[in-house]
Specification:
single chain; alpha+beta; 4-stranded antiparallel sheet; 4 strands; Anti-LPS_factor/Scygonadin; signal
């Protein structure tokens, strides 16, 4: 009887682990799983921008990809027009990979495109793994 109960418990534990693994894999966009980093960058960058919508500051630390990332956004004049640009990087993942954006009409556009650029570049460089994008 005890043996039968322990087998049932073992089966339930295995099924629970499989379900957890499938749920975690479902949180990863398909483009990231197939290493299509441009599409992944657009998808994840937009999701991360939306997650912090209304909370973005010109310079701040953001929790993303299982680490702390940094942002810097600013407006300036370019050809007699006010434009926005920015940078997004995760120093603990890579000291050299940085997402950038330049000459956007809106601050929001500069933020979103810097995030998308970072995910694309970091994925292509092998710095960012598909499993990490679900931690954003």
């Amino acid at each position: 009887m005890v043996s039968r109960i322990s087998r049932i418990i073992a089966v339930l534990c295995v099924l629970s682990m499989i379900n957890h693994h499938l749920t975690a894999a479902n949180d990863i966009p398909p483009a990231c799983l197939s290493f299509n980093w441009v599409a992944c960058g657009i998808n994840v960058g937009t999701a991360l921008y939306t997650k912090y919508y209304g909370k973005w500051q010109d310079s701040q630390d953001v929790n993303a990809f299982g680490t702390v990332c940094k942002t810097q956004f600013r407006g300036s004049f370019y050809r007699w027009k006010w434009v926005w640009g920015g940078q997004f990087w995760c120093p603990q993942l890579s000291a050299t990979v940085m997402g950038t954006s330049q000459n956007y009409k809106s601050r929001e556009g500069a933020i979103e495109h810097a995030l998308q650029d970072y995910v694309t570049k970091a994925g292509q460089a092998g710095v960012l793994k598909p499993e990490q994008v679900s931690q954003s």
